[in-house]
Amino acid sequence: MMNIQKNWDDAVPVYKVDLDETADQSTSCTVVRSIANVIDKDLDDLESLWDSVDPDALDSFVAHARESSTPYQLTFQYQGYAVKIENRWIQFTPTEETPSSVSA
C-alpha cells in the first residue's frame, strides 16, 4: 500500500507521495494509483492520464532527472487535481471548481 501524506494549506488538502517509496513502479503509475486512492475510485473509473500528460514522456523525464541528480519540477492537471512533481515528491492539490461546475 502506498503511503500518502495529507497536510493542509489553509482549508485545502495537500497530498504528497514520496517517489523513493514507490521506486518499484513508474512515476505515471504512481500518479494514477495515488489519485485513485485519494478520490476513492477504481483505476478503471479514472480518465486516461494521456488526456493530461504523455505517460511515457513523464516517466522518461523523471527517470533521466533522477539518474543524473538534476533538480526538476513538472506540473499538470489530472482528475481535478494540480499534480506537481518535484525532485522526489509528487504533490496533489484540488483545483478550484470550473465555472461550468458551479451551480447558481
How would you describe what is shown here?
- The protein is an alpha+beta fold and 104 residues long.
- The protein has one domain.
- The chain has 2 helices and 5 strands.
- It has a 5-stranded antiparallel β-sheet, with helices on one face.
- Strand 3 and strand 4 form a beta hairpin.
- The radius of gyration is 14 Å and the shape is globular.
- The C terminus is likely disordered.
Number of helices: 2
Strand count, sense and barrel status of the largest sheet are: 5 strands, antiparallel
Using DSSP, what is the number of strands? 5
Category by helix and strand content: alpha+beta
Kindly report how far apart the N and C termini lie: 40 Å
Low-confidence stretches: 98-104
Kindly report the average pLDDT value: 86
What is the molecular shape? globular
The quaternary structure here is single chain
What's the number of domains?
1
DSSP strand (E) fraction?
25-35%
- Helix residue percentage: 25-40%
Radius of gyration: 14 Å
Q: How do the helices and strands follow one another from N- to C-terminus?
A: EEHHEEE
Q: Strand order across the biggest sheet? A: 1-2-5-4-3
